[in-house]
Write a structure and sequence with these properties.
By secondary structure, the protein is an alpha/beta fold. The chain contains 16 helices and 13 strands. The structure holds 5-hydroxymethyl-3,4-dihydroxypiperidine. The site of 5-hydroxymethyl-3,4-dihydroxypiperidine (IFM) has 8 residues, from loops. The site of 5-hydroxymethyl-3,4-dihydroxypiperidine has 8 residues, from loops.
């Protein structure tokens, strides 16, 4: 493990540029992306094990069988987090590691891994932030129908109870879901994610059952956790912009905002599905049958924090009649759309912006606007940036260093956007860099490196990139360095 570079001495920042008192500095990962140990200690396959082992689904045939081997190296990884000065670590729990069939009693060996991880974090003075679900449904539950089936929400509530019982005394922040939009619409709509189904109606049904599962889990967590514990959900809210000022493009933006964002924020934060979403998708789903009495009350149980993930804005238009629609929506290539009811909407890459290795436009103003939009739309809901970061083509220099100035610039710009949003009224409580370390980037396998720590997969050696040293310095200062110091 490489030590944190001491060559950037912390300097006291002027008051104006310091982040709010108590602002949390963290980094995030997810179970299937880092843990490995896919068949150890009783863990059974999740939908991502099945999907990644299906030829043609993941770049290069990569799987999460070993990933970053975090399951065996978590103590070293926590030591590294401590060296970087992280105050919080956001990780997810592999459902099929703790409840292999997705039903019934938990496997103690699986729970033990998370108990040990959490104890190690607490010992290091790092707050654990646990996400119950980051896309890895136990395969047995998918075989029984998966998220399009209502019963899956009940299974999830049982699983939440198991985890609250096992870790509720030591994890203070709980997140039900990470990016349920991806689970529903990439998993069951475009099929670029597990389980790879391409059924628009099932995608919408999945979205409702993910919402319901969230609400049921919040009820369970609230009933079992200490009063001081915080509950949350993390959404990848699309910062949707119309391509032009035309009414047609405004309608495209409204539609994508509905099926990309308000399908979750509506029921969760306002207790109702948006009328326009119901109208746009009425030909696919019988909403009055799908949404049963009491569902909306359950889904809208209050959360303490809303997690927001942001990478790039979403630029849309309504193509002229007869013109083919393009789908540069950044969510992977598929003949099937992840936008049920709005398949005709065209997606564009913003001109004149630098891009990351994902071909995503770099646009910090998108984060600023998103945080203020959410603040206006849902006043009084505290926010946490639970993911933000970028993939670049990192490599180890002959001197053994990884220089990633583009990532430093990306992080600087986006943290500056957070500061501006806070100054303009957004209640942002913290920031989690995605990701702590390079990992399995879903359908892209190991070809995309989002980590601030480089992982040499052959040796599993960790090398903090220049951005990790930069981020450690930001954390020490509790402020951004002024231009030139970074
Ligand atoms: O790696 C993913 C993560 O699992 C969820 N949010 C986006 C990241 C980058 O694509």
């Amino acid at each position: 493990m490489t030590a944190v570079r001491p060559d950037i001495a912390p300097k006291q920042a002027p008051e104006a540029t310091r982040f709010p008192t108590g602002f949390v500095w963290g980094a995030a990962t997810a179970a299937y992306q880092v843990e490995g140990a896919a068949a150890e200690d009783g863990r059974t396959p999740s939908i991502w094990d099945t999907f990644s082992h299906t030829p043609g689904k993941v770049h290069n045939g990569d799987t999460g069988d070993i990933a970053a081997d975090h399951y065996h190296r978590f103590r070293d990884d926590v030591a590294l987090m401590k060296q970087l000065g992280l105050k919080a670590y956001r990780f997810s729990i592999s459902w099929s590691r703790v409840q292999p069939t997705g039903r019934g009693p938990a496997v103690e060996r699986g729970l033990d891994f998370y108990r040990k991880l959490v104890d190690e974090l607490l010992e290091a003075g790092i707050a654990p932030v646990a996400t119950l679900y980051h896309w890895d449904l136990p395969q047995e539950l998918e075989d029984a129908g998966g998220w399009p089936q209502r019963v899956t929400a009940e299974r999830f509530a049982d699983y939440a109870a198991i985890m609250a019982g096992a870790l509720g005394d030591r994890v203070a922040t709980w997140t039900t879901f990470n990016e349920p939009w991806c689970s529903a619409f990439l998993g069951y709509g475009s099929g670029v994610h597990a389980p790879g189904r391409t059924e628009p109606a099932s995608a919408l049904r999945a979205a409702h059952h993910l919402n319901l599962a969230h609400g049921r889990a919040i009820e369970v967590l609230r009933g079992q956790l200490p009063a001081a514990a915080q509950t949350s959900v993390t959404l990848n809210l699309h910062q949707v912009r119309p391509l032009t000022a035309s009414a047609a493009d405004a309608d495209a933006a409204r539609r994508i905002d509905a099926v990309g964002n308000r399908i979750f924020t509506g029921p969760m934060l306002k207790g109702a599905y948006p009328e326009d979403l119901l109208a746009d998708t009425a030909h696919l789903v019988d909403w009055p049958t799908l949404v049963q009495d009491g569902d909306l009350a359950a889904i809208s149980r209050p959360v303490d924090v809303l997690g927001v993930n942001y990478y790039t804005p979403t630029l849309v238009s309504t193509p002229a009649e007869g013109a083919g629609s393009t789908r540069n929506d950044g969510h992977g290539a598929s003949d099937y759309s992840p936008w049920p009811g709005s398949e005709h909407v065209a997606f564009h890459l913003a001109e004149g912006k630098e891009r990351t290795a994902m071909n995503w436009a770099i646009d910090p103003d998108g984060l600023y606007n998103l945080l203020l939009d959410v603040t206006r739309e849902h006043p009084g809901v505290p926010l946490m940036v639970t993911e933000n970061g970028a993939a670049f083509d990192d490599y180890v220099s002959p001197e053994g260093r990884v220089e990633d100035p583009e990532r430093i610039a990306y992080l600087h710009g986006h943290l500056d956007a957070v500061q501006r949003a806070v100054a303009d009224g957004a209640d942002v409580r913290g920031y989690f860099l995605w990701s702590l370390m390079d990992n399995f980037e879903w359908a892209y396998g190991y070809s995309k490196r989002f980590g601030t720590v480089y992982v040499d997969y052959a040796s599993q050696r960790r090398i903090p990139k220049a951005s990790a040293h930069w981020y450690a310095d930001v954390i020490r200062r509790h402020a951004l360095p002024s231009a030139g110091l970074s």
